[in-house]
Amino acid sequence: MNNTTPTSHSTLQGRVAIVTGASSGIGRASALELAARGARVVAAARREQELEQLVAEIRNGGGEALAVRTDITRESDIEQLVATTLAEYGALDILFNNAGTEGTFAPLLEQTAETYDQVFEPNVRGAFLAMKHAGKVMQERGSGSIINNASMGGVIGFENGALYIASKHAVLGMTKTASIEWFRRGVRVNALCPGVIDTAMTTDRIWPSAEAMREFARDSIAGRAGSPGEMANIVAFLASDDASFISGHGLLADGGYSIA
Fold first, then answer.
1. pTM exceeds 0.90 for this model
2. Catalytic residues
3. InterPro entries from the entry (predicted)?
4. Contact 198, 213 (CB under 8 A)
């Protein structure tokens, strides 16, 4: 007989979290989940109206949140994001490095230097800049958790997705390297590697329609697409003390797609 009393989700009460790409999809769901667990959330993205709606939702639910318009490819924007966070809340404990793009899915020979830049600027440069400036603050404090959104594309190949796949391999590589450099300084760095997730970005940029995406997902081991909320729960776990001995890990949340 198991007499263990189930515990509630690990609290993030009082911690300060930056979420990039927070205006929609996994970023938005993660901002809401982190706030629900007690974190004060700084929501960053380019779309100001969506950010303000998110912040209003968090505040209406009794949480604390702030919107900061941010282009993650601009280092000055990242510096301002971190500075604003510290000025408002006096700390930075969590970074969910979520912002990015799928770019254009097409055969490798049809890709161009321009589309390369469109993918690598946000996905790799943006992730690097946010890690660098948030990581510096966290190391000075001796604690922190960074979660990068690396996608299952960080560990597999995918037809017509060479640039996106390459960018996510790069993110996973930075995750592992930063973990080696920073773990003993109190900063954990991990990656979330989602599979097919039912978001507007996924259906608009990879599949021709939402139904095409769902049909693809039905053929996977899980038999369905994942939800932004399921990914948000993983982000909250990796941000929490429950994951205190996990660093440098790319957590696959793909419904078993990559093992088929």
1. yes
2. 164
3. NAD(P)-bd_dom_sf, SDR_fam
4. yes
